[in-house]
Design brief:
Layout (H helix, E strand, L loop, with lengths): L3 E2 L5 E5 L4 E5 L2 E5 L9 H24 L1 E4 L1 H26 L12 H15 L41 E2 H25 L2 H17 L11 E5 L20 E4 L3 H17 L4 H19 L23 H15 L2 H7 L2 H7 L17 H14 L7 H17 L25 H20 L4 E4 L2 E4 L1 H15 L23 H4 L13 H4 L30 H4 L3 H14 L33
Antiparallel strand pairs: 1-2, 2-5, 3-4, 6-7, 7-8, 9-10
Helix pairs in contact: 3-18, 4-5, 4-6, 4-18, 5-6, 6-7, 6-8, 7-8, 8-9, 8-10, 8-11, 11-12, 13-14, 13-18, 14-18
Length: 607
């Protein structure tokens, strides 16, 4: 009998001692002939008498049959059968559990840090908090803010640890968060945080709409600040505040109004599918920008923002470029791009000049952000004349800025631990570092989207991944890869600041009401904060990588919403490396297509 091969290469060698072989029509048959012979008539008649003997004979013949099976094949067969049985069981399990949620994928450090950084905004909410706020030690607070001013000023976000609401940094924070959503909504969706970050933005923009008459066509004042830093002898939870909280208004504040316009314009794109709300945001942004510029654009001759104890603006021309660029993206109105690409405005803004803060994006300096945003227009849309020259200048400027972040550049020093000193050794460096990490990663993704392999920085060509690597090293430093092995994001890793400058976190949540003086014992306590303000990025170390975990030293230990917004943006940008990429189109949804670029005028003296 010939050997028969199995599917997996083994053999089934079966021998039947009783089998006969016959050849019929050229084919060989293997069978027990006695089982197939037609019985004679007498055998049929006698069969019932012979049945016991016949049964015994059949049993004897079966015993003589011998099956020789290859052991390896047998084992493989059993394995296959087991696998098939397991597969069937798995299919049955999934069929019966098809409505159950799948377990979440294993999360990397950036995903975990992102989720926690977003939680910080939940801890900063003012007013009547939403039911889904998951910070157990926070409650409703300052419900009477702005009573008598329009419809009141309840809600919004406290800026840092002292329960004051500043419109300037809050607007910048909302702009940065919206920008990150517009670029990386798919990454937010993957982490399950898209709805969360959109809720955070809307809580902020709802408040900003209360700070001026957003239903009017013109305005003459906006809210600069609500509340004030309490005196040194007062330490109290926001929920216990019962002293008057002043509302500070301003009638000439171009930087603030233009930043608020940027925030509402960017958010209007985030919420474009909610047509009514998006339209409301665009209208508010439009009247704010007109209020900021007095309708004069680059010929603005009005005053500067009023002085403040905190968050003083050093100028407003950069906010005009920044706000105008966002207004163009939100409306598609060509008057805005005409303004932001006018040489006069760029000259006023000193957009193409150097200086110690050149390339340092923050709540007061929008140059780098505006230049990258304008470069995006050039990289993905074909504008041509008359915009190309200025857009090219913006593109070259931001490329130089990103190059200046690299270790080979001498524009910025670094600490021994590797932290770039964007604010030149001054306190609270991390807020600027996170913004730079976001810009560098986003710039890299723009190169990726345009199939550009890298960029020439001076005499050296850098592959695009070098810019992403810069961002990763800085964010990794913040998360704990530093000389102190400390995470500067609270609640991330096992070693993080314990004495955060934050009144709400430093006082136990079970204390519902207390006076200013009664709370001082918690400020002076040597024990760590009783409440962990998860996700808060503190001010950060000094230029020697030193850090004082001291509740009273806010330069080291106070978090802010502007700082955390940059952290969130950088973290979501770095998720998944470059696999997901950016959303190239949503940002431009309101911009009409250009059928033909305008031709430049002929040279002088020629027809």
């Amino acid at each position: 009998m010939p050997e028969r091969s199995s599917l997996w290469g083994g053999t089934f060698d079966i021998t039947l001692e009783m089998e006969d072989q016959s050849i019929e029509n050229g084919h060989r048959h293997y069978y027990d002939r006695s089982a197939y012979q037609s019985p004679l008539e007498d055998e049929v008649k006698q069969g019932w008498l012979l049945r016991p003997a016949m049964d015994m004979e059949m049993k004897r013949k079966k015993k003589k049959r011998c099956f020789n099976i290859n052991p390896t094949v047998l084992i493989r067969t059993l394995v296959v059968v087991a696998v098939l049985a397991g597969f069937v069981a798995l299919v049955a399990f999934l069929a019966t559990h098809r409505h159950h949620h799948r377990p979440p994928p294993v999360q990397d450090n950036y995903t975990i840090a992102l989720q926690r950084a977003l939680m910080f905004f939940n801890a900063q909410g003012s007013g009547k908090l939403p039911a889904n706020n998951n910070v157990s030690w926070r409650g409703d607070s300052c419900l009477d803010d702005g009573n008598g001013y329009l419809n009141g000023l309840e809600a919004g976000y406290y800026d840092g640890g002292d329960a004051v609401k500043y419109s300037f940094p809050a607007s910048f924070a909302m702009t940065m968060l919206s920008w990150s959503v517009l670029e990386y909504s798919a990454k937010y969706e993957t982490t399950g945080e898209l709805n969360h970050v959109k809720d955070i933005i809307r809580w902020g923009t709802d408040y900003l709409l209360k700070t001026f008459n957003s239903s009017a066509d013109t305005i003459d004042k906006i809210v600069l600040q609500v509340g004030k830093n309490s005196p040194e002898n007062c330490w109290i939870r926001p929920e216990s505040i019962n002293y008057p909280r002043p509302v500070i208004l301003c009638s000439t504040c171009p930087a603030l109004a233009a930043e608020m316009a940027a925030a509402l314009a960017a958010a209007s794109i985030v919420f474009k599918d909610d047509h009514k709300y998006s339209k409301k945001l665009v209208h508010g942004a439009d009247i704010l920008f007109k209020f900021a510029t007095k309708g004069e654009g680059e010929r603005y001759a009005g005053g500067s923002d009023p002085p403040s104890n905190f968050y003083n603006s050093s100028g407003f021309w950069d906010e005009f470029v920044w706000g105008g660029a966002w207004m163009y993206c939100a409306t598609g109105n060509s008057s805005y791009i005409d303004l932001v690409t006018s040489p006069g405005l760029a000259k006023h803004a000193k957009a193409f000049w150097g200086g110690p803060d050149h390339g340092v994006l923050g709540w007061d300096n929008k140059h780098a952000g505006a230049q990258l945003l304008m470069s995006r227009l050039r990289m993905f849309l074909d504008f041509g004349y008359p915009y190309e020259e200025m857009l090219k200048n913006f593109h070259e400027q931001i490329s130089e800025i990103i190059c200046s972040y690299l270790p080979g550049s001498h524009n910025f020093k670094r600490t021994n631990g590797g932290l770039i000193e964007l604010n030149h050794g001054k306190p609270k460096p991390l807020q600027y570092v996170t913004n730079a990490a976001f810009l560098a990663t986003l710039y890299t993704d723009y190169l990726e989207a345009t199939l550009t392999p890298g960029w020439q920085c001076g005499a050296k060509f850098y592959p695009k991944d070098e810019f992403r690597d810069f961002a990763k090293t800085q964010i990794d430093y913040i998360l704990g890869r530093n000389l102190r092995h400390m995470s500067y994001v609270v609640g991330f890793s096992d070693h993080f600041p314990q004495y955060v400058h934050h009144k709400g976190a430093s006082i136990p949540g079970y204390i519902k009401h207390q006076s200013c003086q009664e709370g001082l014992r918690w400020k002076e306590s040597k024990k760590p904060n009783p409440n962990t303000i998860v996700g808060a990025m503190v001010g950060g170390p000094d230029k020697h990588d030193g850090f004082q975990d001291n509740r009273s030293n806010y330069n080291f230990t106070e978090p802010t919403i502007a700082g955390n917004a940059g952290l969130v943006a950088a973290l979501v940008a770095l998720l998944d490396g470059s696999k997901t990429g950016i959303d190239k189109n949503t940002m431009f949804y309101a911009i009409p297509p250009f059928s033909m670029s305008r031709l430049p005028p002929p040279p002088v003296g020629k027809p």
